[in-house]
Amino acid sequence: MKITKAVITAASRFQRTLPLQTLVDRDGRQKSVLKIIIEEALGAGVQEICVVVCAGDETAYRQAAGPDAGSLQFVAQEQPLGYGHALFCAREWTGDEAFLHMVGDHIYISDMGAGCAQQLVVAAQNHDCALSGVQPTREHLLPYFGAVGGQRVKSTSDLYEVERVIEKPTPTAAEQSLMVPGLRAGHYLCFFGMHVLTPTVMELLQQRIAQSGPQDRLQLSPILDELGRRERYLALQVQGRRYALDANYGLLIAQLALSLSGKDRAEVLAEICDLLARRDLASGMENLVEEASGL
User: What's the pTM?
Assistant: First the structure.
């Protein structure tokens, strides 16, 4: 298996503007979220990238991609028929090749020299199978992510044979079907926002679309759940962190994470400490005023 293509989905009506936002990257340079994600894919050895967008958003995304725009393929999702359908819109472009898939509303920060996408691609190529990135996630965050259950691959510390996939499970469903031996209590393996997918995924999506009504929304997690019964499907605990931009304060937290892992870390920490000190001072003064007024 050789991964040379990547598909970035950014067609959600609720998150479509997030990849267009500007952040300061780890090198102190202002870039769009889309540009940061594109660089993550290119760092994994990808040579061609397709971006799935809402119809009419192509111009805005070309501008956000900057110099990379000329080498991108844009595909429009004409109707909001779900995440799985958005991915299927790239079916003709991916053809019969395995590909890297990344969502457009996450920022990824690696804990090691290799980028998060690079870790995923290397593992998928080594094991010659579909593979999803996962991150141990606290139970209270289950409503935000798809989650997997399975068994650790023998003689490894970060690979799992996927047995079940459930989209945004309840804590009860997770406890019943997604417990992973060796994981900390109260934690589950939730999706990282990037996958290496085989052509089988597109075949399964096509079958599900043929069985669905014209307005039915198609999600990806049920397809991945079925994938594990069709062929070998692994999950990799990525050495890094993913930051969902659609969460409360998502852009702020992602920006802080980028800043604190980059060259301006000391400066940013100093500013944060100064901000907290001023806040504590102001709070202390308010308490003194309240105490004085009560005399």
Answer: 0.90
196, 4 Cβ separation under 8 angstroms: no
For the record, the structure tokens of 206 come out as: 């096509």
CA distance 262 to 252: 15
List 137's β-bridge partners, or say none: 188
Q: Are 190 and 141 contacting, i.e. CB atoms less than 8 angstroms apart?
A: yes
Rounded-to-integer distance, Cα 132 and Cα 15, Å: 22
Question: What distance in Å separates the CA atoms of residue 1 and residue 259, rounded to the nearest whole number?
Answer: 35
pLDDT band, residue 288 (cuts 50/70/90)? very low
Q: Which residues contact 183 (CB under 8 A, 6 or more apart)?
A: 136, 189
Q: How many residues does the chain have?
A: 295
Q: 282 pLDDT exceeds 80?
A: no
Q: Cα 60 to chain center, whole Å?
A: 21
Distance CA 180, CA 84 (A): 26
Please give the Cα distance from 69 to 63 (Å, whole number).
7
Tokens 């079925």 belong to which residue? 226
Tell me if 116 sits within 8 A of 108, measured CB to CB.
Answer: yes
Beta bridge partners of 132: 195, 235
Residue 290 banded pLDDT, cuts 50, 70, 90: low
Judge whether 31 and 25 are in contact, CB under 8 Å. Answer: yes
**Which parts of the chain fold into alpha helices (H)?**
33-42, 58-65, 83-88, 91-94, 116-127, 171-177, 199-211, 221-230, 250-260, 265-293
Closest CA to 208 of 49, 113, 85: 85
